[in-house]
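MOLECULE: protein
FOLLOWS: sequence and fold
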Amino acid sequence: MKVDKVRISNFRSIIDSGEVIIDEKITILLGKNEQGKTNFLKALESFKKDYEDDDLSYLSDRRDYDPSEIPMITVYFKRDHHDQNLLKSFSSKFSDTTEIVITKYFDNHYEIEKPKIDENMEDLLKDIRKVNDSINKHLVEIENKLALSNKTDKQKHINWLISLQMPDGGFSNIPGQPSQITHAYFAVKALIELGALDQINKQKLIEFILSTQHPGGFGHLPNQQPQAQYTCDAILLVKELNALNKTDKQNHINWLISLQMPDGGFSNIPRKPSQITHAYFAVKALIELGALDQINKQKLIEFILSTQHPNGGFGHLPNQPPQAQFTCDAILLLKELEIDLIHNFKEATQTLSKLSLDEDEIRSTIETILDIFKDLKEQEFSSIVTDIEKIKKKMENNINNNILKGVLDLIPSFVYFDSIDFIKDKISMVEYLENKEKYRSFSNLFQLAGLNIESIKKIKDPHHRKREFRNASASITGLINSSWTQEKVKVNIDIDGDQILVFIEDDAGAKADPPSKRSDGFQWFLSFYINFMAGTKGELKNAILLLDNPGWVLHPSGQKDLLNTLEKMAENNQIVLATHSPFLIDKNKLERIRIVERRADREGTKIYEKFYDSIYDSLQVIRAAIGADISDSLFGHKNNIVVEGYSDKLYLEAMANYLKKKKREVIKLSKVMINGAGGADKIIYLLGWHKAEGYRNRNT
């Protein structure tokens, strides 16, 4: 992706840079010292680096804000056609926009402003509504399947319970045994689930129940050890009597939860074996206390169903004979859990039809419904489950951080340079191969020259080895001379034992100068060329290069060579450079210039494009920014065409370039300077300046 423009806020000397357009190839920052050019470059670099405390501007009015609310840099990216398919895989929203806007905040989090990631939730909501429609079509069937009582042979259990009634009207515990009130209570309780209630003496019962309260649960008598059955009885009774507020509710909840065992069942007292009856009392009490969701309900259901007997009824444990009490407890438990399950299902589906764009709400609801459906293996619901799982997967892959991470991986890095690692005179082959990362300049030199040191080490024939180094020398020499026009040089790479040598020859008589013996300017250019030309084909490919005052040690003609090299690099990389040199400015590409100016009254650094907005000639602002005068080569020429304003200059240059392409060149821009006067009334003054400089003028 290409950077189209940026906006820097609250960074060092910059309060708000405004939107700064970044040229597709080279952007040039001009400004006097201490105006904020380096701060602008460092702000760009910070897009993929963590902020430090002193990066936040002391001029900012947001220093007391939450760091997550302080924007630092907004980058506007133009979508590249190479990235189109990848971006579309993140979200369909990327199909509808050619621009991606990302803001980074002081706490180092990013937000995609365009396209809005939250809008992607609309796609999910469409899928969710489709699932909700499917659920509604099958709602009765689903609720029947969710009915846990349907997993038992209900009529067999009813018949079996009826068979327990004795001639005296009581109930036995198993067929053929004498009646007992306790057995009758359980049998009748199971059979009158459709409507009978006990009658109780409220006041006296309240006093008795509260006297049995124990830290944790309730005992069967005062000062007795608490058990699940007695606790359940007490909770049911005090709630029925509106006296629940007189108990230690949370303490009882915690104690009851502690009774659930790893098999899903419940014990009567902590750490004792599970039984259906204990589970019934514990669960019933938890329901009354509103704490059923705090236990493992699925494991409990599995435990209850495992106690069914083939001939009807339930035992107290799996594979145990059925009894009236255990059958009653199991049936009541399943009924309670069924009511809870269907209630949760209806609540989730109602939420599903009213979902907003809240990701957490969607995620929670989807998880709830999947949990409910996971035991519904019937074929008619499989498509619903599949659709829900797709939604869940889409959420995992496409929402917020995952989309953001994918987009950030596609975005080029901003790489800042204010110095160059000079190429050394020599390097040990063994030392280099052991630590290539330490000797990056040599690695880049070998890459450009087409020299594989690992292969060289294996060559036994000295003549073969010499040929490899001669070919490499010829290759790197050709590349350097294509850019360095000050003199013809020969860059040699050779080997002497374990030592790989670099030395320079030229027409002035130098025969074997190591780089360190050459001028600082040539060393800088050679090292820059090696590192950047290799880097832009490898690790720096597609990176945005941030160059702070490059080539300052170079002669003006060397800086022109550097500009030509930058033009080559800009084929694969966008470049933003800060400079004071007029020789790094192409007079025919002045639209690349951005003026950097630090203003008073706590406005901070501003960056603007209208360098031609001047009361003098249209290039006065550029001259002021780099401290030049009109006689410098960028601002004056032996041959001049003077026009009214900067727009006239652009029109005339465009026409000249067009005619040149048509082989009808009328104005040779390389031999003439078109200069805007900044207004018709200023032409006379500009002509006067040109006359004083001895320039030739043509007024249009």
Q: What stands out?
A: Residues 324-352 form the longest helix (29 residues). The CA atoms of residues 337 and 343 lie 10 Å apart. DSSP finds 24 helices and 17 strands in the chain.
